[in-house]
Specification:
- The complex is a heterodimer of chains A (403) and B (374).
- With 403 residues, chain A is mainly alpha-helical.
- Helices cover 71% and strands 1% of the residues of chain A.
- Chain A has helices at residues 2-8, 13-32, 50-61, 70-87, 91-100, 111-123, 127-140, 145-157, 161-171, 177-188, 194-204, 213-229, 233-246, 251-263, 267-274, 282-295, 300-316, 323-333, 337-350, 354-366, 374-383, 388-402, and one strand spanning 44-47.
- In chain A, helix 8 (145-157) packs antiparallel against helix 9 (161-171), helix 13 runs antiparallel to helix 14 (251-263) and helix 14 (251-263) packs antiparallel against helix 15.
- Chain B is elongated.
- The chains are: A mainly alpha (403), B alpha+beta (374).
- Strand 1 (44-47) of chain A pairs antiparallel with strand 3 of chain B.
Chain lengths: 403, 374
């Protein structure tokens, strides 16, 4: 409560002064932090987030590092990944890999081990390596819904809509109807059948389901995104709210809702949705930073600085998982169009979803180089996606490229 | 307001460890060619150390300085036990130093300072890194290795846990560039050198004839004057910089610092009540000797690499000259254009010099008496 106060309502003198002070302090803390010896024993250096507490508890109960059996190791890894997904904590995937111990490289590997490895590799955006694990797994076990869902997800992120769609169709008979419907709907929308997909999914959401809260949140978020693409703002917002009512801290849903609000030119609502703390996932922090900048909020500089530092650290370790976010950051926060275009181009080689096409189109247009968006234009033509906003950007790029 | 500040302080002091970043540690090793001791600083996230060592002993979901400080031996033992440094085939045993804390973008880190002692001057450094890999396979050690002021970086991963670095091959060019950058930076932040130079440049577009200042007629004669002043200053401070850096002569820093302030004071006063008018370069040469000692003390603070002394010295000097040239390029065209303006002599030459003289006077008194006024 207190924190969101100075994000969104710091409009009175003292509040502004305090917020400026805060921004300056945060900025200086972020930029010029230097090693220090705390004055008192009671100084609290670190508050452990719920994710860390959950991971610690798991570590105490699970026999780390080496589990006696593969079944136990896989169960431990799965627990870590569940925590990682819930709290969007990348370290959890490192713990999961460590929990597999020597099974990480064991060859030959049973299908369930291959799927687990693929899941961890997928998280690191090592899509080719993940598929190399998944393909033999799916050959030996064609009825593993988790494997098909993972396969569909990877192919969708890579922009291979047809392969993703085929995987979703395989999935439908062997999984909960809502999960199958969400998978199918999200790919149907990419081949120009948004309206059918929306109806299918809306109907599936009225049926009783045995799916988990996370899966239902995914379904509602997908529905919301279909409606956004169809420019049905009121219905989309309703679906986003349903999604967040189920799982309030779902990072993907929050980021998608924030994008919708930014497109609707409601940055203040983004602020209310995400709060202003710099300790959130990169994807939501990016949206908070864009919103704060558009609002002219006092903490805009501090959020920008935090993100810049995070991306710098990611580059240092050779991590390329958030190129899309980095491109948007360069474009919308730092207004460095040349850099944004470069990042968006690199990103589009690895990742080809509507959002990736969008940032490439946006950057190319902003840089005055519409021909640089050619890969996105080709992809849009191949898939036939019906998203008016994206198509109008594409149209501008096409006319710009011809001139 | 109080609520905001309270929330803020809480946020500043103990930002909740956030869950957004894979685990990294930052390992900085500093070596000098020709020396056998390597100094190290290792920043490791508290939440990572907690994973391995259960730092939160009171289980209140937070880590206090007490919980870190009281485990100092464990922390050093755990970390240094997972880092093997070696020179050639011989190991370089490590000694724990100071324990501090710092913040990175994802929370608080323990800062472990240490030193490694090799049997002889290190030629080939091997780094064997094993921290946390058994618990977190995505952990990485981000190594920065500084040799004679030039740095290189490497990422230590489970697949590449052991790496070798040839210290003699660390680019000489990089050392040179590094020190040139330091030289430029010093001119940029060293207002006393800048003001001294400006004091000498201000009259360079004028000529003193029969007790009065006249604007010079041509750009050529203005540039010749500037060239003479800048060359004299460069030659003289290079002489003392080199002699002092090589420990041939040395002066107490208080004397040098007050001398520099005095030079700025006298150079600016000379513009108001001219004594030396025709040969500004003589003034530049004499006082330049003092400034050279000032540069040498900065260079000393930077830590000169023994194996690359000449290179570092040359680099630093080139940097100083580039910085100086930038000041000249910024000031001379402007004052050349303004030299005929009616306000140039009262406003800029006398007014500007008075302001400089005032600042230099304050510096001089402060430095000579050790008052800490700058």
């Amino acid at each position: 409560m207190k924190r969101s106060m100075f994000c969104c309502n710091a409009t009175k003198g003292l509040g502004i002064a305090a917020a400026w002070f805060a921004a300056a302090m945060l900025l200086s803390a972020a930029v010029s932090a230097s090693p220090r010896r705390p004055d008192s024993d009671d100084v609290v250096l670190e508050r452990l987030s719920p994710a860390i507490v959950a991971l610690r508890q798991l570590r105490r109960t699970a026999a780390m590092p080496a589990a006696a059996s593969l079944t136990q190791a896989l169960a431990n890894a799965r627990h870590y990944i569940e925590i990682g997904q819930t709290y969007s904590d990348p370290r959890a995937y490192g713990y999961a890999q460590a929990a597999l111990g020597t099974w990480w490289t064991a060859d030959p590997a049973p299908a369930r081990l291959l799927v687990m490895r693929a899941r961890i590799l997928q998280f690191r955006h090592e899509f080719d390596a993940a598929l190399a694990q998944l393909e033999p797994a799916l050959k030996s076990d064609q009825f593993d819904p988790d494997a098909w869902l993972l396969f569909a997800g990877i192919e969708q992120v890579r922009g291979n809509v047809r392969a993703a769609r085929a995987a979703c169709l395989k999935l439908i008979p062997i999984t909960d109807p809502l999960v199958g419907a969400t998978c199918a709907a999200s790919t149907a929308a990419l081949i120009g059948r948004t309206q059918e997909a929306e109806q299918l999914l809306a109907h599936a959401l009225t049926q009783p389901t045995g799916s988990s809260a996370a899966e239902q949140t995914w379904a509602w978020t997908t529905l919301a995104e279909l409606r956004v693409r169809h420019l049905d703002a009121a219905a989309a917002e309703d679906a986003f709210r349903q999604a967040l009512a189920l799982t309030h801290d779902d990072v993907y849903a929050r980021a998608a809702y924030a994008d919708f609000l930014l497109d609707e030119n409601r940055p203040r609502d983004v602020c209310n949705l995400l709060g202003n703390d710099g300790g959130q996932a990169d994807v939501t922090l990016l949206r908070a930073a864009i919103a704060a900048q558009r609002n002219g909020d006092a903490n805009a500089a501090a959020l920008r600085e935090t993100l810049a530092q995070r991306f710098a650290e990611a580059r240092q370790r050779g991590d390329r998982t958030h190129l899309r976010e980095q491109a948007r950051f360069a474009l919308e926060v730092e207004h460095d169009v040349a850099r944004a275009l470069e990042l968006a181009q690199q990103n589009f080689i690895v990742q080809r979803e509507p959002a990736d096409a969008r940032v490439l189109l946006d950057s190319a247009l902003a840089a005055g180089k519409p021909q640089a968006a050619q890969p996105a234009l080709d992809w849009l033509r191949e898939t036939g996606i019906d998203a008016p906003r994206l198509q109008s950007l594409a149209q501008r790029a096409r006319t710009g490229a011809q001139e | 307001m109080r609520q905001i500040l309270a929330a803020l302080l809480l946020f500043l002091i103990a930002g909740a460890a956030s869950a957004h970043k894979p685990s990294d540690s930052y390992l900085m090793l500093t070596a000098r060619s020709g020396e056998s001791t390597i100094s190290g600083q290792w920043d490791i996230a508290l939440r990572d150390l907690d994973l391995a060592l259960d730092l939160d002993t009171d289980h209140d979901g937070s880590i206090s300085w007490r919980e870190v400080r009281t485990r100092e031996r464990d922390l050093f033992g755990y970390a240094l036990g997972r880092l093997g440094l070696g020179s050639g085939a011989a190991p370089c045993p490590t000694t724990a130093g100071e324990l501090l804390v710092d913040d990175h973008s994802d929370g608080a880190y323990a800062v472990l300072r240490f030193s490694a002692h090799c049997a002889e001057a290190v030629q080939r450094l091997s780094v064997d890194y094993r921290l946390l890999f058994d618990l977190d396979a995505s952990h990485r050690g981000l190594l920065r290795l500084d040799v004679d002021g030039a740095s290189r970086s490497a990422v230590l991963s489970p697949e590449q846990a052991v790496q070798q670095f040839d210290l003699t091959q660390v680019s000489r060019f990089a050392t040179f560039v590094q020190f040139a950058g330091d030289g430029m930076h010093h001119i940029w932040i060293g207002y006393d050198h800048m003001l001294f130079l400006i004091s000498l440049l201000l009259p360079a577009v004028l000529l003193r004839r029969s007790g009065r200042w006249q604007p010079v007629a041509s750009l050529r004669s203005a540039l010749l004057g500037v060239l003479a002043v800048v060359t004299a200053f460069t030659v003289s401070h290079s002489i003392t910089l080199t002699l002092a850096a090589l420990d041939v002569i040395g002066l107490p820093s208080r004397l040098v610092e007050s001398g520099i302030a005095l030079s700025v004071l006298l150079a600016s006063l000379n513009n108001i009540w001219p004594i030396v008018t025709r040969r500004g370069w003589v003034l530049a040469f004499c006082f330049g000797l003092v400034h050279g000692f000032g540069f040498a003390s900065v260079l000393g603070d930077l830590g000169l690499p023994r194996g690359a002394l000449a290179l570092a010295l040359a680099g630093f000097n080139v940097g100083v000259e580039i910085g100086q040239l930038a000041v000249v390029l910024a000031v001379v065209p402007l004052i050349y254009i303004l030299r005929n303006a009616r306000f140039y002599r009262p406003g800029i030459l006398v007014g500007g010099s008075s302001a400089i003289a005032f600042v230099a006077g304050v510096w001089f008194v402060g430095r000579a008496l050790g008052l800490g006024l700058g």
